[in-house]
Amino acid sequence: MNNVSLLIALRYFRSKRSGFVSIISKMAFAGIAIGVAVLIIVTSVMNGFEKELQTRILQAVPHAAIEGSINSNEVDEIINKLLENKKVLGAAPYIETQGLLSSGSALKGVYIFGIDPDKETSISIVSEQIIDGTWESLNEEGYNLLMGNILAMQLGLRVGDKVNVLVPDTNLGLAGILPRTRQFKVSGIFSLGAPEMDETFVYLNIKNSSKLLRMNNFVHGIRVRYEDLFLAPSEIYKDLFYIRNTLNLDLEATDWTKSYGTLFKAIKNEKFLISLLLTFIILVAIFNIVSMLVMIINEKKAQIAILVTLGGTRSFIQKIFIYFGSLIGIFGTLSGLIFGVVITYNLGSIISLLENLLGIKFLEVYFIDYFPVDMRPWWILIICLGSILLTLVSSIYPARVASKIEPAEVLKYE
Q1: pTM greater than 0.85 (yes/no)
Q2: What does the buried/exposed string (b/e) look like for 371-405 if buried means 16 or more CB atoms within 10 Å of the residue's CB?
Q3: Where are the domains of the chain?
């Protein structure tokens, strides 16, 4: 009997009938396909933004930092204490300030980081993103500097060129507060793929930074990287408490959530809200399936009544319409899956084509200037299973209506 129910459902599904019912059927099929495809595309892009922020941006920015006026002689001792925590992958001292870079007639505001090149590789991926020059040049004699590729382009600089670095002098003189300046040589250019960093970040050797800012062998703090990004907000305060008690130093702590936490939460919230809103496309298609099934039942009452008189049970009738609704859901979901995966896979090319045709750049002002894509199989599986399950559930009510048809009432006028 199950096979007969399925065969009848397949006949309905393959039917080339025309009319209003057929239009509703096609709309339901198309609605599910479009809903699934759009959900796959949008969630893949949102997952891509989340992944890029987590693996590219937040790997260039340390997970956490111990802050305070730390003498250079105390740095190794503090780092050793931090490394006692097995969850710490690395730690490095830093000096941070804002300043100006001057090259010819061009002037650009930047964030200046004084770093220890040997220790910095344990907390940041910047050393792996050098596209010209070398990371090791910061260890060489002289005043060398690393900058992002966008910043170098804006200032018209290449490796080997000279650039003036201007920082504020907090000492008040007769003429007021004047900038302190020093000429540096561009010894390396990096590209993180994030405009926000590639056009504003500059790296100097920590000793040169100390001289430039007259820090007198002090650093601003020690930045820390943990094995898990999301451990940082809690672990850094445990480490701070331990350092305060063992070394008797008055220090503070901060973590990545202070600077990028809002952005990260915004992306996660947007992904949830957009997914929720796009799910309504599938829900509209589900209502179309219910409407279509009810109309088909009204249209086929006489045939259903004949099947009942021939021995068809309530369960048999229900299965016909459950199978029919499920077939629309399954094939609609599969069509959406294929369409969504193909579009997502070629999204970069499609966006580039649209940008060239329209003469605009969609993400020019954002922290990532391209559409990252991260297709997660389990996420796509949830979307597809959810769509099929909804169509299956939506078919139950019309199927029950069909099974309650009384043959005597329907056939007495036939």
Answers
A1: no
A2: bbbbbeeebbeebbeebbebbeebbeebbebbbeb
A3: 2-55+263-411, 62-258
